[in-house]
Amino acid sequence: MRFASFFTSAFQRHPSYSKLILLCTLSGGGLLSYSESQSITGTPASSTNSDVPAKKKVVVLGTGWGGTSFLKDLDASLYDVQVVSPCNYFAFTPLLPSVTCGTVEARSIVEPVRNMVKKRKGEIKFWEAECLKIDHANKTVFCRSNIDSNLVGSGEFSLEYDYLVVAIGAQVNTFNTPGVKEHCYFLKEVEDAQKIRRAVIDCFEKAVLPSLTDEERRTNLHFVVVGGGPTGVEFAAELHDHFQEDLVNLYSSVKDFVKITVIQSGDHILNTFDERISLFAEDKFGRDGIEVQTGCRVVSVDDKNITMKTKSTGEISSVPHGMVIWSTGIATRPVVRDFMEQIGQGKRRVLATNEWLRVKGCDSVYAIGDCSSIDQRKIMDDISAIFEAADKDKSGTLTVAELKDVIDDIVVRYPQFDLYLKSKHILDLSTLWKDSEGNYREEIDIEGFKMALSHMDSQMKTLPATAQVASQQGEYLARCFNRMHQCEEHPEGPRRFKGSGRHTFLPFRYKHFGQFAPLGGEQAAAELPGDWVSMGHSTQWLWYSVYASKQVSWRTRMLVVSDWTRRFIFGRDSSRI
Amino acid sequence: MRFASFFTSAFQRHPSYSKLILLCTLSGGGLLSYSESQSITGTPASSTNSDVPAKKKVVVLGTGWGGTSFLKDLDASLYDVQVVSPCNYFAFTPLLPSVTCGTVEARSIVEPVRNMVKKRKGEIKFWEAECLKIDHANKTVFCRSNIDSNLVGSGEFSLEYDYLVVAIGAQVNTFNTPGVKEHCYFLKEVEDAQKIRRAVIDCFEKAVLPSLTDEERRTNLHFVVVGGGPTGVEFAAELHDHFQEDLVNLYSSVKDFVKITVIQSGDHILNTFDERISLFAEDKFGRDGIEVQTGCRVVSVDDKNITMKTKSTGEISSVPHGMVIWSTGIATRPVVRDFMEQIGQGKRRVLATNEWLRVKGCDSVYAIGDCSSIDQRKIMDDISAIFEAADKDKSGTLTVAELKDVIDDIVVRYPQFDLYLKSKHILDLSTLWKDSEGNYREEIDIEGFKMALSHMDSQMKTLPATAQVASQQGEYLARCFNRMHQCEEHPEGPRRFKGSGRHTFLPFRYKHFGQFAPLGGEQAAAELPGDWVSMGHSTQWLWYSVYASKQVSWRTRMLVVSDWTRRFIFGRDSSRI
Predict the structure, then answer these.
(1) Among A52, A199, B201, B319, which is disulfide-ready with B576 (CB 3.0 to 4.6 Å)?
(2) Rounded distance, CA B416 to CA B455, Å?
(3) Backbone dihedral region of B313: left (phi > 0), alpha (psi from -120 to 50 degrees) or beta?
(4) Distance (Å, whole) CA B57 – CA B365
(5) Is the pTM of this model over 0.90?
(6) 3-state SS track over A59-119
(7) Residue B519 pLDDT class (50, 70, 90 cuts)
């Protein structure tokens, strides 16, 4: 491999050496296909010389958190890697709400994919295109460039894969509410944030015009945020800051007409956070004059009004708006939906993978991030096999000691086991051996074992659709790909209770590092590991340092920090560009 | 006035005092109308209390170089000032070519108009709208907001004026070439530059796709710049730098297909510059591989091809392109054209003003910047009046001494007089008194005087349509407005040769501070005052310092300099957003 990589770098410097290398390294294994894949035509590597074992073709769909962290950690010299995404950049999405008001610039949170992949070992090919269809039977994806200018050449092409990594994300969920698609702003992509930024300024510029009545000014300056999750709440807070710190001085004649409303269907905003944070946020919004309407469901939106239903009373009310930002949840993209139909997952809500992130029903397809969900194997489905495996002496009963022999494998394979013990504060396994009257037993049979473990599956949790999860999944999958050959020979996973031997890899395990909710006015709330909760100004500074450190490149880190600095000195820019 | 401004600032802090102030300052002159103009409804000041002499209403159309420099220098406490522009920002247009490739960001070269005007003495009202019609007979402008979202309220309104300042700029001139509007990119507004930036990346992203033939790649990567003026040349240079410094590493598989062509109808590019600069630029472009086709006129453009005619041979040729940037000249905007029809200038190419920037045929309308041109009074039109005024003893003949008595007024009123003397290296006025055989005469009659001055009008020059001219015109006009009352009593201008007395103001005089042409590769050419020419790397550094110092605010100065720094460290961003 070192020989190959020497020539690889020589080739990169002097493309004219290409033929020479092809001649003198026919025995070079992977190098040949590598050289070919560098070729100007860029045709998929399927045309490699059949004498030489070609590298396995990995196609990655998407360059969001999942796709990018996979590519960053993948040893691309082991595979023929092609990436397809409609965006030629990675966006640091947690800062999108800041982009809506110009606290940071859109360009400061994006990093070109090509910048990132050119620093990788080996070569990664990138195509700016949308994946239209995954044809699993033929292991092919069909793609089309989304450039709509008059450039010549067909933008349609297909790529064959040996392994496919679906990291395509999700789309906005409108819950089929009438008018949402047409009249609402979303906050999912960088373009969305840019659109919102312009639209906010439009609302103000329109409202100050001499030809408007006060009622019209009031309508145009009513900003409605639907969804009280972290994104909606952060946007409302950003908008409030933008208004208080910048716009109030520039559009002072209409400052009394501005109103921000957050509509939440649940009883509290930030309801995935600790209750103390929800209450703190509601309290802060109350003081800031941001109206929070909880227990309300939006039934329709048109260009003038937003109509909602109060859940408790069933009352329908309609209010005029200048702008509605829809931030309520995510839905499966059509291409993933179509793929799910093909592989028999048509009835599911979201693409299911096993604990190794492999799509259920497809050996060669992996899915990470928001487009997929891990379907954790239930203990009760395997309870007999576990019992059998643990029952070494085949006595038909199990002692605590017998269970302890296989406990490590069980905990790795079924994390709910461990979660259950922790939730019940069980430190000693023999507690499980107690009967219903609380008497300790020496041995238990299969029925007793089932009883003891019966509540454990309730501890299974779906992972949230966050950047943190997607990013960890990408890293995990890259590690597996990097050691695929090695682990196939020396499996590192837990033993198979059904079947024999061990699983090739350890299953994916998510580590939660906490989450932030910036609330405006240089205050933030945070849920930190270990059930810690932190709120206030110091938390905002923690937020600044964490978000700066998490940037994908030194370039974006410098840009984001200098944007923050600029904002502190000069305020936000209100130019409508 | 100090009394008024105390209340003014009190009012700004506490809008609820408004009525109180109105009651207790009825004798406060200007303050009343000022308070009213602060009112929330923002209605034009025409509704002021008729007992109080209202301030004169000044309406400014446009916030480009002319309009902005006028507003920056105007003492807005003297007038009721309203500004109308479709852009709520001022853009530092000389850096637009840098924005096309991301050398500086679009936001770094714009400054919100409201930011600028809020720092001014007095209050300036700004409306983001387009002026649709100037109704000179009724001293009214009709405007419409160009916000196309669904916000409520009519965006149409009219403003009455006592003085109108037309600083509306010009639009792209396509010379009615078929297909240009539909298929070319322009470089006039900030949006244009942003579009080009995305389109360049599109060309590369499309060209690398696996489905294209090499011929298609070559077509998509053929960038054609029409117009070899400073803008076109700078764009070509920027694009070449962007390719060589950034894109070549990211799109290495297509690097051999990239071609940049500059099409110029004249014999040389940069033909408004000194010839040494033209040749230097052509030589540099030749070395860089940028093809320069001079003596070529574009006859049509379609989505695939650009068709041109070689002037010398009449030969028509057609080449495929990926992108055409049209940068050839400017044309009058429809609203100005319509206004010209109203005031009897329908047959002129461009709106004519006198030397005081007042539109010919309208007492109360001024025009500055690219939308207008100064119609310098000819000496020969006034030759008899000048002779008569100079001939103090009414002898029917003129001595050199008699001319010297009025020479200062002549030079101020007719700058071509001075230009002629300089161009002919005439240091002593008596040279003019020589007859055709070169013999010195004591006195000359009117015919001799006409003869002596007959070639002077050939020295009249139209000012170029540059930021420098517009900016100086704005400053000049603001100075006149600030001292209007004072100068009406004590005129400062030259004597009127026709009629009696003096002109109120000194006429506008343009000072040329030189011009730059950045040529890429950290080299620039410059024409400096005094016919100095400077070329090379040091000139580029001069360019950096001049452009940094000319920024309108510390904010944009910091942003532009940090953009340049970022580019030096990290290169330009190739994300398509």
Answers:
(1) B201
(2) 10
(3) alpha
(4) 12
(5) no
(6) EEECCCHHHHHHHHHCCCCCEEEEEEECCCEEECHHHHHHHHCCCCCHHHHEEEHHHHHHC
(7) very high
Mutate to test the interface with A, among B205, B246, B301, B559 (most CBs of A within 10 A): B205
Residues 6+ apart with CB under 8 A from A228: A262, A263, A264, A266, A268, A269, A270, A271, A292, A294
Residues of B with CB below 8 A from A217's CB? Answer: 40, 153
Q: Which residue of chain A is at minimal alpha-carbon distance from B156? A: A211
What integer pLDDT is reported at residue A50 of this predicted model?
53
Tokens, residue A534 = 């932190």
Alpha helices in A444-553 (DSSP H): 446-453, 467-482, 484-489, 537-549
Q: What is the DSSP letter of B551?
A: -
Tokens of B152: 């409520």
Task: Say what the ipTM of the complex is.
Answer: 0.87
Of B87, B157, B570, the CB nearest to A555: B570
Instruction: Report the relative pairing of strands B259-264 and B222-226 from DSSP bridges.
Output: parallel
Could you list the mean pLDDT of each consecutive 10-residue stretch along chain A, which spans 577 residues? 35 37 33 33 44 85 96 94 96 96 95 87 89 96 90 94 97 95 96 96 96 96 96 96 94 95 95 93 96 96 95 95 95 96 93 96 94 94 92 88 90 92 87 84 89 89 93 97 94 90 94 92 91 91 93 92 93 92
CB B546 within 8 A of CB B94: no
Taking residue B202's Cβ as centre, other Cβ atoms within 10 Å add up to 22
Which residues make beta-bridge pairs with A158? Answer: A142
Contact B38 A253 (CB under 8 A): yes
Phi, psi of A566 (to 5 degrees): -55, -40
DSSP 8-class letter at B201: H
Looking at the complex, report in whole angstroms how far the Cα of residue B221 sits from the nearest Cα belonging to chain A.
9
What residues in B contact A209, CB-CB < 8 Å?
A: 42, 127-129, 145, 153, 155, 157
Residues ≥6 apart with Cβ < 8 Å to B48: B32, B33, B36, B54
CB atoms closer than 10 angstroms to residue A576: 22
* Residue A519 amino acid letter: L
Select the residue from B151, B198, B551 to test the A interface by mutation, using most A Cβ atoms within 10 A: B151
CB contact under 8 A, A149 and B574: no
B contacts of A569 (beta carbons < 8 Å): 555
Amino acid at B375: D
User: Closest residue of A to B201, CA-based?
Assistant: A88
